[in-house]
Design goal:
Rossmann fold; Hypothetical protein af1432; 364 residues; 15 helices; single chain; alpha/beta; 5-stranded parallel beta sheet; 2 domains
Length: 364
C-alpha cells in the first residue's frame, strides 16, 4: 500500500542512478518524498532552493565527493542542521571518523540493508522533530518569562513614577520643571548624537531612556521636609545641606529597584541622573565632587537642562531670567560648571530650549 508523503523530503545524492531508483522504490511505502541527484554541485543548488529534511550522501562521486559536499553544507548557517547519513561502500574506520567530524549524523555501508536504513532515517527524523519541539517549547517559555519580567518591571517602574507624582503634588513648580527638563534632555541628546562624538553612544534606546529617566532627577526631594522644600525665602546653610542630600536619596531609591532589575537601563540611568546632575565639570559640585568625563554623560546633559530651567523659572526668592541672560550665564560657566562640548551644542539649539520653555510654561 502506498502512503502519501507528509511533506517530509529525503534527498539522495549518489552518482549511481541505480541506487536512487532502488531507494525510491524501496522507500515508497514510507510517508515521505524521495528526490535524487547524481551530482554534488547540482544537489547543493537544489538544497539551497528547497532544503530537504534529510540527506542520504554517497562519498565517492566524480565532481564533488561526499566529504566536500558535507563540508559546504555545514558551512551554511541556514542548512547546517539538516541531518546527513553517509551511504558508502567505504568501511574504513578512518573514513567513518572523517564523516562524523565533518558533521555527518550517521553512516551506513553498502550494500544497503533496507530495514536498517529505514530505522536510521526514522531515528534521525524523530531526533530533528524532537529538537524542533524543544526549541518551540523553549521559545514559548522565554516569551512567558520575558512577559513576566516586563510585568514585574512595569510594576516597579510604576512605583517609581508614583514617587515622581508625589513630588509634583508637593510642589507645582517641581512638576512643571520635570516636564521641561525631560524635553531639554532629549533635545540636547539628539543634537549630540547628530553632530558630536556620541553617535554610537546615543542611539534611539538612549534617547528614550534619557527622556524617561530625566523625570527622576529630583525624586529625592520627596524626603525633604515641606518647611524647607516650600520655603519662600533663601535657605540657610543647614537647610541647603538638607536639600543637597536629595541627590543621594534619589539615587538610593532608584538603585534599590535597579539592583533587582539590572537590565533595566531606564532605572540605571535614572539613578545616575539623580546622583550626578549637580556635579560640575571642574569638580566643585556635589555629592561626589567628580570632574570632567568622570561624570556620566546623562548627568552632564541634565546639568545644562536643569540649570537652564532654574534660571528661567521665577521663584518666591528670585525673579526668572530671560532666555538670553540664561544662555549667557551657561556660556560663561562652560568648562567650569558645564561640559564645554555640551555647552557648544546647547548654543547651537538654544532657540529650541526657549520654545520648549515658552510652550510648557504657558501650559502650566
Amino acid at each position: 500500500m502506498n502512503i502519501k508523503p507528509d511533506n517530509t523530503k529525503i534527498m539522495v545524492v549518489d552518482d549511481s542512478p541505480t541506487v536512487y531508483r532502488l531507494l525510491a522504490e524501496k522507500l515508497r511505502d514510507q510517508p515521505y518524498e524521495v528526490v535524487g541527484y547524481q551530482s554534488g554541485n547540482l544537489a547543493l543548488k537544489a538544497v539551497a532552493k528547497e532544503p530537504p529534511d534529510l540527506i542520504l550522501l554517497d562519498i565517492i562521486m566524480p565532481d564533488m565527493d561526499g566529504f566536500e559536499f558535507c563540508k559546504r553544507l555545514k558551512a551554511d548557517s541556514k542548512l547546517k542542521n539538516i541531518p546527513v547519513i553517509f551511504n558508502s561502500v567505504v568501511e574504513e574506520a578512518e573514513e567513518k571518523a572523517k564523516a562524523f567530524a565533518l558533521g555527518g549524523s550517521d553512516y551506513v555501508t553498502k550494500p544497503i540493508q533496507l530495514a536498517e536504513l529505514k530505522a536510521r532515517i526514522n531515528a534521525q527524523l524523530n531526533q530533528q522533530k524532537s529538537k524542533a519541539n524543544l526549541q518551540a517549547h523553549n521559545l514559548a517559555l522565554k516569551t512567558k518569562l520575558d512577559d513576566k519580567v516586563k510585568e514585574i518591571c512595569a510594576s516597579q517602574v510604576a512605583t517609581v513614577v508614583s514617587l515622581v507624582e508625589l513630588a509634583r503634588s508637593r510642589d507645582n513648580d517641581t512638576g512643571y520643571h520635570i516636564e521641561r527638563t525631560q524635553e531639554y534632555c532629549k533635545t540636547l541628546a539628539e543634537q549630540l548624537a547628530r553632530n558630536g562624538d556620541y553617535e554610537k553612544t546615543i542611539d534611539d534606546e538612549y534617547l528614550a531612556n534619557i527622556y524617561q529617566a530625566a523625570a527622576l532627577h529630583d525624586i529625592g526631594k520627596v524626603a525633604v521636609p515641606d518647611n524647607i522644600l516650600l520655603k519662600p525665602g533663601r535657605l540657610s546653610t543647614e537647610e541647603f545641606d538638607i536639600i543637597k542630600n536629595h541627590s543621594n536619596v534619589g539615587a538610593q531609591i532608584l538603585k534599590l529597584t535597579a539592583e533587582r532589575y539590572p537590565w533595566n537601563d531606564y532605572l540605571n540611568m535614572g539613578a545616575d541622573i539623580a546622583l550626578y546632575h549637580h556635579e560640575k565639570w571642574d569638580g566643585s559640585g556635589y555629592p561626589k565632587g567628580l570632574s570632567g568625563k568622570d561624570i556620566p554623560l546623562c548627568g552632564r546633559i541634565m546639568a545644562v537642562a536643569d540649570v537652564y530651567d532654574v534660571l528661567r523659572n521665577e521663584r518666591p526668592y528670585k525673579k526668572g531670567y530671560s532666555h538670553a541672560k540664561s544662555v549667557e550665564i551657561i556660556k560663561k560657566d562652560s568648562g567650569k560648571h558645564f561640559d564645554p562640548e555640551i555647552v557648544d551644542h546647547f548654543i547651537n539649539i538654544e532657540r529650541t530650549f526657549a520654545e520648549i520653555y515658552d510652550k510648557l510654561n504657558q501650559e502650566s
